[in-house]
């Protein structure tokens, strides 16, 4: 937009863009084109992090329920017959996915079909041999969890020496850029909120191209009594930090990851566009036991069925009304008749708590920017 654009024209342009955004969300709900498929390959993990939002555990008690590779491959085959696989990201997560040696074969199968496939990992098992295996399997994207500088990361992960191991893995990735995408994901909590600037400086210095910050949210071990949840003032600090870094830096990309809607003061300053929670409309997950849902972070009370009993595409086509048509009825009571609803839609679906719909999840209220 030109600096000489009249104010009235600028307002009209913004209004048109917002109207288009709302219309596009309606189209996606109606057409639900799959764009991102998570496979929660395991709940087993080699860590027991203080902020873990799932049921991950450091034992093999859930191993017997994990899906066999051939069943996952069959779902990928069927999806590739319906959709263009090159338009779908297939993301293998956990638990810690690298605990399973057979995910590489599933990834290779996905690559042969044309999917862009990737993993999210704590990187403790990402040694030279495993990285070579992933590379040979056609890995396209990799996200590595690193939650601040050494003291902060090791404390949150409850594993002395974890930071050094992750940094060694980052250096391996930086030294061999075979992938299409690589970034660091940082969970922001009360532990590290005051040391984000030196953390970003460190990442840029070693050559990490992108960092995504996401506030710890109240799920699993990171419940409201964990002491990890950010206050409203701390969230505002995070938003201001990300906005400033995006303007000031050219050596590393800084963004705010999936969380929720932060209102007109912040949305396009902390990421590239308005927040949109695509859970159940463009995003789906096959969980470790075969259950199917939207984003893997949503409540397990939003399960649509299991691929052990029905094909994924059957569930995708004939389920997910909870995510597509019934969202407002499931949103917290505080959403009410909020004027932000069409843009916000209650924030991220993972923030909904069907056990207690009165729980305040509104980001705008938390940071004191709610207006009517």
Briefly summarize what is shown.
By secondary structure, the chain is α/β, with parallel strands linked by helices.
Unreliable residue stretches: none
The largest β sheet comes out as:
10 strands, mixed
User: How many E strands?
Assistant: 10
Shape, please?
globular
The structure class reads alpha/beta
What distance lies between the first and last C-alpha atoms, to the nearest angstrom?
28 Å
- Read across the widest sheet, the strand sequence of neighbours is 7-6-5-4-3-2-1-8-9-10
Q: What kind of oligomer do you see? A: single chain
Overall average residue pLDDT = 91
Rg result: 20 Å
Strand content: 5-15%
Q: Output the number of helix runs.
A: 14
How much helix, percentage-wise, in residues?
A: 25-40%
- Secondary-structure element order, N to C: HEHEHEHEHHEHEHEHEEEHHHHH
């Amino acid at each position: 937009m030109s600096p000489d654009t009249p104010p009235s024209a600028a307002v009209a342009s913004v209004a048109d863009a917002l109207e288009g955004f709302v219309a596009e969300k309606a189209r996606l709900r109606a057409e639900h084109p799959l764009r991102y498929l998570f496979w929660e390959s395991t709940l087993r993990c080699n860590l027991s992090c203080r902020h873990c939002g799932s049921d991950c555990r450091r034992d093999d008690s859930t191993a017997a329920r994990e899906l066999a590779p051939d069943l996952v491959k069959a779902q990928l085959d069927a999806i590739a017959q319906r959709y263009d696989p090159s338009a779908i990201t297939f993301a293998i997560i956990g638990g810690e996915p690298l605990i399973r040696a057979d995910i590489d074969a599933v990834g290779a199968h996905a690559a042969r079909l044309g999917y862009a496939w990737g993993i999210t990992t704590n990187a403790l098992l990402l040694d030279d041999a495993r990285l070579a295996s992933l590379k040979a399997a056609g890995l396209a994207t990799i996200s590595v969890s690193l939650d601040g500088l050494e003291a902060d990361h090791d404390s949150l992960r409850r594993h002395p020496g974890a930071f050094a191991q992750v940094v060694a893995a980052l250096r391996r990735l930086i030294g061999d850029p075979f992938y299409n995408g690589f970034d660091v994901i940082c969970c922001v909590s009360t532990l590290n909120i005051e040391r984000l600037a030196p953390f970003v400086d460190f990442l840029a210095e070693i050559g990490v191209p992108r960092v995504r910050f996401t506030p710890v949210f109240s799920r699993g071990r990171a419940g409201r009594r964990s002491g990890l949840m950010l206050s409203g003032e701390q969230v505002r600090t995070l938003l201001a930090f990300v906005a400033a870094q995006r303007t000031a830096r050219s050596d590393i990309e800084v963004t705010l990851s999936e969380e929720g809607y932060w209102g007109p003061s912040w949305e396009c300053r902390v990421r590239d566009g308005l927040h949109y929670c695509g859970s159940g409309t463009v995003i789906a997950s096959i969980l470790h036991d075969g259950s199917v849902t939207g984003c893997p972070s949503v409540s397990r009370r939003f399960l649509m069925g299991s691929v052990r009993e029905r094909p994924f595409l059957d569930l995708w086509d004939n389920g997910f009304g909870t995510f597509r048509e019934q969202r407002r009825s499931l949103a917290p009571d505080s959403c009410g008749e909020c004027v932000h609803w069409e843009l916000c839609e209650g924030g991220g679906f993972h923030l909904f708590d069907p056990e207690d719909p009165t729980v305040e999840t509104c980001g705008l209220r938390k940071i004191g920017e709610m207006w009517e």
